[in-house]
């Protein structure tokens, strides 16, 4: 096996392949290299590195290459430094993060969140500081009024 770090210069999303420039070999540009993902059969995962991203590549004895993942650098440092967090950050600012130290899943979404299917919540739901469990409504004698502020 031969391992090298290079920079993505083009992507082929339909085939999950990229071309990589290797500066250690006079800026040689590879043939299309397969991007390794975590699942392709029943549990599928999809990820494409961006053009300009530094990637770690491995080549077989037959010179068949694979992109095993992206690598951080001084110019592109990790977005968080933590032993307990799994952090995914998208270019539009959306963030998915799980912190196993306090069992918190955080979602910061730049756009709408769409859920298809039933939703079950065990616990309270807070929306703009108003508790779904303990909010009150003004007495109207008919149709329920909007909730009172607070909770």
From TrEMBL:
<dbReference type="InterPro" id="IPR013046">
    <property type="entry name" value="GpV/Gp45"/>
</dbReference>
<feature type="region of interest" description="Disordered">
    <location>
        <begin position="132"/>
        <end position="151"/>
    </location>
</feature>
<dbReference type="InterPro" id="IPR037026">
    <property type="entry name" value="Vgr_OB-fold_dom_sf"/>
</dbReference>
<feature type="compositionally biased region" description="Low complexity">
    <location>
        <begin position="140"/>
        <end position="151"/>
    </location>
</feature>
<protein>
    <submittedName>
        <fullName>Phage baseplate assembly protein V</fullName>
    </submittedName>
</protein>
